[in-house]
Amino acid sequence: NLQHVEVIFEDSRSELWIGTHGGGLNRFDRATQKFTHYRYDPEDSSSLAHDDVREIYEDHMGTVWIGTRGGGLNKFDPDTETFFRYQHDPGNPRSLSDDNVGPIYEDRIGNLWVGTGGGGLNKLDRETGTFIRFRYDPNDSKSLSHDHIRALYEDRTGTLWIGTIGGGVSKYDPSQYQYKNVQLGVGAF
Q1: What span, in angstroms and rounded, lies between the C-alpha atoms of 54 and 157?
Q2: Contact yes or no for 57/68 (Cβ under 8 A)
Q3: Which of 21, 22, 73, 128 is the most buried (most CB within 10 A)?
């Protein structure tokens, strides 16, 4: 189903990925001019975790990551054409904080950041497959400004900028390990 497209992404191998709302994930091979369709299968734990694909991202190692609404984060294995799922587990504080995945971003030192639509920001520990969560705390002025993350970007100084829905912009300074919330006035852009 390519009727409601959410995201289009070209990877380093020149393959085009198309994520849809309800129609799963599609990969276009330019050499064969054919699509491969990936869908959620409740009987197969190595299938795409949800058919609502929100984000597609490739890291520096060539790994393709897929963020879904409701199915968490998926890592694509090109050899087997299967997916490994990172999902929220209410009993595990080191799991992904929310299965509604938004932006995915790798910073200059290789940290993979995953924003969610209500669970704040997550940093993947690639060695353990677990996450460190960063959440909004109304009692902490140095926490994220909101838990609904919509945009991530690292600037040339290494500061990670976090755009939220409902809380403006936060920035994370890794050298000081703290957040600062930025008030944007009229004409700030």
Answers
A1: 28
A2: no
A3: 73
SS3 177: coil
Closest Cα partner for 52 from 82, 27, 19? 19
pLDDT at 172: 85
What is the distance between the alpha carbons of residues 86 and 15, in angstroms, rounded to a whole number? 24
Q: Look at residue 183 in the predicted model and tell me its pLDDT.
A: 53
Question: pLDDT tens digit string along 55-93?
Answer: 999 999 999 999 999 999 999 999 999 999 999 999 999
> Cα(78)–Cα(135) distance, rounded to whole angstroms?
33
Question: What does pTM read for this prediction?
Answer: 0.90
Q: Tell me, what DSSP letter sits at residue 58?
A: E
| 185 SS3 class | coil
Q: What is the distance between the alpha carbons of residues 38 and 81, in angstroms, rounded to a whole number?
A: 9
The partner residues of 154 in beta bridges, in order of sequence, read 160
Residue for token pair 């945009």: 151
Beta-strand runs (E) in the chain: 5-10, 16-20, 25-29, 34-38, 53-58, 64-68, 72-77, 82-86, 101-106, 112-116, 121-125, 130-134, 149-154, 160-164, 169-173, 178-182
Percent with pLDDT over 90 in the chain: 79
Amino acid letter, residue 157 = T
pLDDT of the residue at 187: 37
